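Page header: ASSEMBLY MODEL / two components / 686 residues total.
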Amino acid sequence: MKTRMTELFGIKHPIMLAGMNWATTPKLVAAVSNAGGLGILGGAAYTPETRRGARIEQRESLREAIKEVRSLTDKPFGINVMLWSPETRTAIPVLLEEKVPVVNYSLGRPAEIAPLIQAVHEYGGKVVGTVALLRHALRSEQLGADMLSVTGYEAASHSGNVGALVLIPQVAEQVKIPIIGVGGYADGRGLAAALALGAEGIAMGTRLAVTQESETHEYAKQLWVKGTEEDTVISDRFDGINCRVIKSEVADEILKKRLPVVGAVTGALRMKRLLNMSFGELIRAAWSLRQQEERSIQSLIRFAAGTDLLEAIVVNGNPRGLLHSGQTMGRIHDIPTVAEVIERTVAEAEEILKSMKAKIGS
Amino acid sequence: MFKTRITELFGIEYPIIAGPMAYLSQAELVSAVSNAGGLGILVSVTLPTAKELREEIKKTKSMTDKPFAVNVTLAPIIRETNYEEYFAAAIEEGVDIIETSARSPEPYMKLLKDAKVKVMHRATRTRDIRTAERVGVDAVTILGIEAAGLPGMEDVTSLVRIPIAADAVKIPVIAAGGIADARGFVAALALGAEGVLMGTRFMASKECNMHPKIKEWLLQLGEADTVLIQRSIKSTSRVVKTEYAQKVLEMEEKGATLEELLPLISGRRGRNAYITGDVSNSTISVGQAVGLIHDTPSVKEIIEGIISEAKLIVQRLHSAGIGG
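Prediction written out in full:
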């Protein structure tokens, strides 16, 4: 299926893997790229050069992960970097040195986005901006992004409040660069709908996390398979940003009690260690961040705690974790291979649009 | 011609339905939609008694000979309502399509089916449309959280709701919430719907009986300028994010009771706003689709525009080699 998205990246099908932190691994990323889509690895689960602490001894560094993807596929792939968190921003030098073909940023400010786009373009890479608001879409286009991944309210993890049916056409009519939809897509009906709404493709997260090649814990896969479209909840309490997760006891507790104390302390200490701060600097940073509306130190600490809870369930199958999910979970009932998901999605979309052509297009 | 099971069921030209809007979906707007080949739905909840409903039906019939429907909202609202009287009024005045909403129409299905009425039921949850099918309705409307009136407590969007609904029932599914133009129309059909129901789009039409100042104001609103209120009383409603709406939300957050909220969210305030053009003392219902609306054409232009642009969309994809 040819669209501006497939032409931009030189890929076969207009389907991107959403760069889910913890839920994407080199194996899944390569499987998506090998199946003709665009695999994106969530960068936040990796440290740039070293293995992360004692908690997960076996976790590789981001540089090793990039090398592993390259050993598994010769097709284009990308890395997602959440510019919001100072922790995840430490990945940027590695992405640039490794000349990753596609860099996908999310939750960034112009001062962070502009130099990143420039540096990626210098080595000939492409940049995808993930946005959830029209004004962020316009800004990303202005800053030079090559494509936008537009997140609807349906999506897992971080989104705004506007559903894809309204947001996609709204953005499509105001930006010139290609856009794709993310959030709510699990099959060919969704791909056909996205194309009708003015998108050039889709990104799938939850659907591709529930595949044979996905290395997410079996416990997590079963939660996604069993859950319905009504079993998710969205709040900024989970990791400091508006985030959609599966309803659970832990989610309930966080909604009622605010931040768990243990998580807050470990989150704060990790932030301090990562940024190489003294306690005095941490307090000063907290103060300066408090001046900025969106990124209070509390929400950054909450983010560190939230990402630990995500890791706990996705990697270790710990029921006391928090599992991110899109509402599209209600449409996911099987665990196929990545190639099956991509091929049946494209075939079904072709079929739908063909019958629509016969019905109304003449 | 544009055949789907919805056009065949209701004997209409295009599978485009105007959702019933409090105070606004009266004879002028309803007849204009039906005359343009769609299906208008008369609102009955804002008519004080069944007698006014009879008059409004007569007036609508004098303005169109095409099919139109009457909505009966089975919700416990401020006043006690004898629903049988409203159903009887519609049936006796010769209306043969009834839209029910808010509660299962089961208690009235025998009455409606004996009168050979076609019943469409609107709901937000998959289990509710399954129930509706089981009790014998002919079509269901599935409402996404993008919608204006009562989009439910579950927050699920149309993109997710529509295909699940299409798989859940055998009767035809109508999509509502977030649709205002040909793009949403084609998307809804691709997702498995056989028709669409739009409210906000028809608010901003020539035939909608509303102060022009409000229509102008709607055109300036973006997709993010709406907010959900009345969640605390389990009757979620999407309205324009005005200072007034924020005030209602603040009261809800402080734990206001139903009795305290009712005077602020009363439909009569909305009616006054529609008449005077002053939106500072009322909530104004709109869907997120308001962000897609940039003009106030006639109903006929809206419907014909959607059909002709839908063709262009399908042709555009076809000539790009998709669906060839």
